[in-house]
Each structure stands twice: as structure tokens, then as C-alpha cells.
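Q: Here's a chain of 330 amino acids. Please give me its 3D structure as C-alpha cells.
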Amino acid sequence: MDRTFPTAAISSSVNRRGLYPDNEPFATGWMPTGDGHDIYYEECGSPLGKPCVILHGGPGGAINPTMRRFFNPLRWRMTLFDQRGCGKSRPNASLDDNNTWTLIEDIERLRIKAGVEKWTVFGGSWGSTLALAYAITHPERVEALILRGVFLLTERELKWFYQEGAGILFPDAWERYCAPIPIEERGDMMAAYHKRLTHPDRQIRAEAASAWSQWEGDTISIRGPEARPSKFNEVDFAIAFARIECHFFTNRGFFPEGWIIDNIERIKHIPAWIVQGRFDVVTPMDAAWRLSKAWPSARMEVVWDAGHASTEPGVIDALVRATDQALVRA
């Protein structure tokens, strides 16, 4: 089986699927975790539809209305939530009890609250990491996985984007990323940023967060900086995004190096779709390729004219087709 689907990946825009119409939540609220966090959640689509949970990226990002539009709202029951410290969840930007394992516990709390036995898990970038970690931990609760911009959170991936590698392709953006850090601290950029993003002075946190977030925004899409999410320009969002992301990455995701691939046998029976932009600089294709080689039954599609952003036309097309296929094949 050709798992790269080259014909579909380079299909013309005329033949590509678009997003489903916008749809409003039929339920919203905050779920207390019992350890000081209140998780904001939304339920969208059909209350009687096939259940799924949608995991946002970052870590440190937040849900947005576009995430609902990858799914047919007449046939899916979608649960979305802002992860700890993110978006509308409280307290904002908190690092306390904020790690991969507590996020997995939150997903389980939401599943039980929704009265769902099993659900499809959808996630891109860090959302793919969390989706894989959740599935490995609770394989009996996962009906299918739909992953985009796979990120295994390995040392190699972190060094590529935050220390050496991606800056070769974006020297102008890299210069802006390095600017807040003195030359003598640039041997470990994540540690240098972590020191500033956890500093008691809000101004120092804000300056570091702006540069950290802009680096990701400048590299997220082949369409250029105009595709940068507008929220990166909001100070409170940028601080939460950069602070939580750096917290997770300096702690290497709170799991051992190679943990996801080492445990892939636990989820090989679960139907899976992998969508990967060929020119993704944030989470390069190497990770998705390694995952697909370890998991041959997963359906992998490489979009040849796309970067990292979920809003690239080819990525939208592939993800919408995947969610439609999951309705009948999962």
C-alpha cells in the first residue's frame, strides 16, 4: 500500500474539500479537576452523533471555532476543551499540576462526564502527542485516532526547532527569536527562555513570550507570516502559550525519550489517519514517517503543498476526508 497518497496530496484546489459550516456549542461549562484547575469545555455538533474529543496544540494553545469545522456537525458529537492554564480554563498560565499525565486524567474526566464509552481522538502538533499518549494509556477508550503534524516530543525534534536546524531556513525569524537572549545563554535556548517565562516580573515574561510565540508564528505556514494566528499578538495568550509550552518542553513532555514509539504496540489495533505537510518546519515529516513505519496499518497522507498549519487548504481537505472516513471505518 502506498501510504503517501501522492495523487491526492497534489490534487487541484477545485477537487479539495473545505471545512464544514460553523456550528455553535450545544453545551459549555467548566469542569473542576480537584487540584485547583477548572477546565473549560464545549460540546458541539449532534448530541446523538458519534463521539470525538478534539485536542488543541501548543501545549499552551486553546480551542477555536475552526476546530469544530473539520467534522460533519450532523453526524459527530464533538467535545473540545482548553487544557490546563490555556484559553478560558482557570487559572490562566498556571504550571501547577500541569503535565502530560494530568491532561490525560482531564480527558478521562471529560469522557466520563459526557457518558461516552469510547471516542475518536483528533489532535494536531502537540495535540497529536497528547492523543497518542492518551491512547497508549487508555487504549480501551479510543475508537480511532486522527493525527496532524505528528510530534513525538523527542530531543531531536526539540533541538531542530528551538536550538539548531529550523533557523537555517528562517534566519530572519531566528534572529528575532534569539534577540531577547544574551549570547552567553544561547547554548540552551529553552532553558534561557524558561528562566524568563517563569520570572516574577510580568514585563520580562511578556517580552520573552512575544519572541517565543512569534518564532512559531513565522514558521507555521508556507503562506508566510500572514498565516500567523492573530492570538499570538495578544499578550495574555502569548504568555500562557509560551510559558506552558516551554514548561512542557524543558521537562521533555514528562515521559522518557522514545516512549511513544516504544509503546506503539498498545494501539496498533486502533484505526488511525495521519496527515502531514511535506514542508512542515515546526514538526518535520520525519516524526510522522517514523510513526507510520512503526504502525503500518495507519493511513498516512503527505500533503505536498503544505506546512504545519491546520488551515493549509490541502491539510483541510485531508483532515475532512479522514473524519468522514472515520464515521464508517472506525
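Q: Can you summarize the key feature?
A: The chain is about 40% helix and 15% strand.
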